[in-house]
Specification:
- With 212 residues, the chain is of the alpha/beta class.
- It contains 4 helices and 10 strands; from the N terminus they run βαβββαβαββββαβ.
- Strand 4, helix 2 and strand 5 form a beta-alpha-beta unit.
- The model has no long low-confidence stretch (mean pLDDT 96).
């Protein structure tokens, strides 16, 4: 069993991850500024701002891994700047603790296998503004080995449908299911994140997934 710190623990992808990790018997440290969670013997809630990451070093000193679902808020007018600031804080925390950090960063930096162009290039301008932070973060990380990062780019359609319990795994290119759709449930994503967390050999790599 692992001791896992989950950043953005009350969010769209964070909440199902916390629930599954607890169900599987892991010890979870849920980091969320205002999130509320049901009491559980293996759950510690840390209502802190990730930008003040220094406050988290002591309570997280014995963890095995950080999984970051950090999101600065889709309607935030300073989304780009705040996303990068928060993500950099997560990376600093991982370095201070000397543990791996698994970052859920969206599909914008994946490549289209037909054109070899990044999916970001095909997105509407309004959506580009929303996802540019994650794209630039991954571009930065590819040249930075000062932290033990793993970057996860889920399928293009990240939904809250029931888990299928099986999925394709890939690297830098968009993958799709039997119907040609690139989609994954947040519950299957949670399962995948825990599998990645348990594999200590995975480092400085990017992975993607889509249902079959």
């Amino acid at each position: 069993m692992m001791k896992i710190a989950v950043v953005g623990a009350s969010g769209f992808t964070g909440k199902p991850l916390v629930e599954l990790a607890l169900k599987e018997g892991h010890e979870v440290y849920a980091i969320s500024r205002n999130g509320k969670f049901e009491d559980h013997k293996n759950l510690s809630v840390l209502n802190e701002d990730i930008n003040e990451w220094e406050k988290l070093v002591e309570p997280l000193k014995d963890i095995d891994v950080i999984i970051s679902n950090f999101n600065a808020g889709w309607s935030n007018p300073n989304l780009y700047e705040d996303y990068l600031k928060g993500s950099h804080a997560v990376l600093e925390l991982s370095k201070a603790l000397d543990v791996r950090v698994i970052i859920v960063g969206g599909a914008s930096s994946l490549f289209d296998p037909k054109t070899n162009q990044q999916m970001y290039d095909f997105m509407p301008e309004d959506f580009k503004k929303i996802v540019k932070g994650a794209l630039d973060l991954y571009t930065e990380l590819k040249q930075d080995f000062s932290s033990k990062w793993v970057f996860i780019s889920p399928a293009m359609d990240l939904n809250d449908q029931a888990p299928k319990g099986d999925y394709h795994i890939g690297g830098d290119y968009v993958i799709a299911n039997s119907e040609g759709k690139s989609q994954i449930s947040i519950y299957d994503l949670a399962d995948f994140l825990l599998k990645v967390a348990s594999n200590k050999l995975l480092i400085h790599t990017r992975l993607t997934l889509s249902d079959k």
